[in-house]
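Mods, move this if it's the wrong board.
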Amino acid sequence: MRPNALGRTIAGLVAVAGLAAGSLATAGTSFAAPAEAPQASVGARSAAVLATQNFGLNTAEAKNVQEFLAQYWGYTDSIDGQLGTNSWKAFQRCLKQYWGYTGAIDGDPGTNTIKALQRLLKADYGYTGAIDGVAGSGTRAAFKRFAA
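Not the wrong board. C-alpha cells:
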C-alpha cells in the first residue's frame, strides 16, 4: 500500500502543479487583453480632440463660422461651435475657390489651410502678418474678427 500512497501523492502534486500552471497561463492572457482596450480608447479620444480646432474662437464665434459655412459652403453637421473635420472641409472648399488653397479637402486645418485662411484674413480682416501657415496671435485675432 505504501507504494500506492506515494504514487497517488506524486500524481496529485503533478496534477496540482499542472492546474496551477494552466491557471497562471489563463490569468496572464486575461490580464493582457484589457490592457490594450484603454490604449485604443485614449487614441480615439486624442484623435477626436485633434479633429476640433477653433484657433482661439469661443463657441459663439465658431457657431457664426459654421452658420456661414452652412449657408455658402455645404456644411451640413450641427452648429455646435466646435470646428471639426466637416467644418474645415467646408472651409477648405471656400479657401480653394477664392484664396489659393491647393490641398486636399480633408478637413485637416494644417499649414496649407492656414496659409489660405491668412490670405483671406489679410484681404479683409486686418491680418498684417506673414503668410506662413502658423496660426499665431495675429491670425487668431483676425479670425475672431472674421467670426464676429
